[in-house]
Specification:
By secondary structure, the chain is mainly alpha-helical. The chain is globular and about 35 Å long.
Length: 84
């Protein structure tokens, strides 16, 4: 496994962990395809708190427009990868 693949896997695992913690569910219930509201039971407050966690964790700022587009775990992984 090269460094980029390893970094991508680590990034994905960390975002899955954050998503599971925010939903108070087991990490095994979260996949890259998980939808925050439909699959993980997030409400608007959960989404806002999750975005704040992402910002703290990865030292970035997620614009509101981008946050509205981040509906799955994979979309978050891709967005963080492109913006860090």
């Amino acid at each position: 496994m090269d460094n980029n693949t390893q970094a991508d896997t680590t990034l994905e695992q960390r975002i899955i962990q954050l998503a599971a913690e925010q939903a108070s569910i087991d990490i095994s219930e979260v996949t890259p395809a998980s939808l925050f509201k439909e699959d993980l039971g997030y409400d608007s407050l959960d989404v806002a708190e999750f975005i704040m966690e992402l910002e703290d964790e990865f030292e970035l700022s997620v614009p509101d427009q981008a946050a509205e587009e981040l509906k799955t775990v994979q979309k978050v992984v891709d967005w963080v990868r492109e913006n860090t």
